[in-house]
């Protein structure tokens, strides 16, 4: 909404020295978004006067028509002699009044005017167009003024060229500010000044002599006012002051009748429509359109109407889209036409916001009227707006207002809200007090009654005020958001992160400490990547939860694994020159079971019941929390110390162990075959839950066909593990280890086993056999060679023994060591190397 400051002053008696910037600051403090303050006429200096064309000489021999004009500017040039001016425009004739800028003046943009020789003549000034004066973007020709203005009159004041215009971005809840009346009300409240309400007019009572109107849909149209004006001068033009106000507000002058309706809409906020009475057949009606009906709107487009469209009709059919745009068959005739309009019927109606909004979007037809109806228009202003339009047409076009007044009103009661007087205090945390609350609510037009509990009647122009919090917001904004104290919320004591959240954070910190970088990805997935993974048709990861309205057609489902997003991030980084990468991500995956019931639509006017919320939860797919890592390139950089160490499947397995340690779980590693991993370099990660081993994840090197299909580096490794299952296998909160003061005893053993025996199985047997005295166990060497025999390997382990309460004797250490070796021999067939 563009608000000229000179127009705003008609309704609010602002201090004389108040500028647009001052008003902007006040309105912004009151909650309005005033984006800019435009300075019209900045840099404009006179003399700029009214002149009359006395003679025109056509200059020939040039590429375009040029005219040499003699113009009378009165005493504005100091001599009273005529000015000789060269001009290329052709939309004026001898005797016309024009706007002349004389030498010594300066136009907007720093364009200085002086006498200069051009086209073989000396031009003593310039005849101006609207674009040259910053009035509009019209370049068609110069300004031709009505003949009543005297020669030599100051055109700067006449054309109101110097002004300030506030550009306000009106939010959907403040539709009343799409009018001078609404902005003036906010300004008057901000300055604590009285308001001259333009809608306070004497309106005649409705009678039976008005133009006949039939409203068949009182829900879509609850109020309709019709007035008739006859005897209009078909050649009457909009006065300059009216045209200038429309231009400053961002609208283009069209014709007197149309300009008047637009002016009243900007002034009061009520959209209006003027029909040429001679083009209306029978009574005006309001109804829903019939399927297949057609209407040609004022923009010249022929539209096929929908059954939900609210239309204005006469006996011939639809003549307008209610609240959006009128029809071309009842359009006001332009003054340039042979038969101008002399009788008009003025429509001022109130239409349902939802109906207008849907019609405008259905036909992709947004208008100034629909913008206002969508946001809510004051239904009580229809009579005043119609009366204001009648008064202006009578005044400016010499018309006569007929005595007939048609007014159809659907019965309705004003909206009331019960509000505790201290409710705004509780919302803002500021003690406003009852007097302040009542005063502020009265300033916005509310009627307030009561003491401790206030009964508030909402004004008709504020349909956005529906509950106590809306009223509290009005009090707070008018008292000033800047006056609200800056306070932090105080959470109740005893609450913090859940164990699941703590584990999630510990895992993230541990992986980051191990050199991994977190990469957050969108939780969306396409079936193409599952094909590239080589997943079988019955793989559970193919049971996708599909989105009704996905962000991308290539990823229409929710992820069932974290690997596609992580591998995509790794591929992008490799493509940008980063080759040594270790990425991780923690997040939810979505597994559909097929047993989910359809989700019910919950109510929006009240809190859902516990049963409804439980039903909604039951409709959700299973969402386990997972963690995954991907690795590529070198784990250790090359340098003077030697070659770099490339990542391997063992690094992916170790990432799983890092996660398991944070959960306090013992991870069991066994060989496995699982897509998309390499069948010979894939490990199954298991944990013990309730005495049973369960699969919690996989780790290893990706299959070569997968790396090729995804464009990944060779030997890329990955690990994915389910945190929820790992948490079940854990010991709960991980406690800090006890530091013993007694010495440690280290024993090394080298065991020879078959090459097919996993090292993890040997390690498990050693741990169980060593008993409680074993503090830690570490594999530090794997050896194969001819001396061991074909199909045999040597595993060397370092065993650390320690007791919490004493120094171990050599006999105790030897017994524990022998027990560990014996257990390994029984379970894996291991023998001591060299024995």
Automatic annotation (TrEMBL):
PROSITE patterns per UniProt: B5 (PS51483), FDX_ACB (PS51447), TRBD (PS50886)
Cofactor(s) essential for the protein: Mg(2+)
Binding site for Mg(2+): 464, 470, 473-474
EC number annotated for this UniProt entry: 6.1.1.20
SUPFAM superfamilies referenced in this protein's UniProt entry, alphabetically: Anticodon-binding domain of PheRS, Class II aaRS and biotin synthetases, Nucleic acid-binding proteins, PheT/TilS domain, Putative DNA-binding domain
Signal sequence range: none
Pfam families, per database record: B3_4, B5, FDX-ACB, tRNA_bind, tRNA_synthFbeta
Keywords: Aminoacyl-tRNA synthetase, ATP-binding, Cytoplasm, Ligase, Magnesium, Metal-binding, Nucleotide-binding, Protein biosynthesis, RNA-binding, tRNA-binding
Main location, first listed in the record: cytoplasm
Ranges where the TRNA-binding domain occurs: 42-156
Cofactor, free-text remark: Binds 2 magnesium ions per tetramer.
Superkingdom as given in the UniProt entry: Bacteria
InterPro entries: aa-tRNA-synth_II/BPL/LPL, B3/B4_tRNA-bd, DNA-bd_dom_put_sf, Fdx_antiC-bd, Fdx_antiC-bd_sf, NA-bd_OB-fold, Phe-tRNA-ligase_IIc_bsu, Phe-tRNA-ligase_IIc_bsu_bact
UniProt GO MF annotations: ligase activity
Sequence ranges assigned to domain FDX-ACB in this UniProt record: 740-833
Nucleotide-binding as UniProt keyword: yes
Domain (B5) ranges: 412-486
Transmembrane segments: none
Subcellular localization(s) per the UniProt record: Cytoplasm
Catalytic activity: tRNA(Phe) + L-phenylalanine + ATP = L-phenylalanyl-tRNA(Phe) + AMP + diphosphate + H(+)
Family, as annotated: Belongs to the phenylalanyl-tRNA synthetase beta subunit family. Type 1 subfamily.
Oligomeric and partner information: Tetramer of two alpha and two beta subunits.
Identification of the protein by name: Phenylalanine--tRNA ligase beta subunit
Organism per entry: Streptomyces javensis
Gene responsible for this protein: pheT
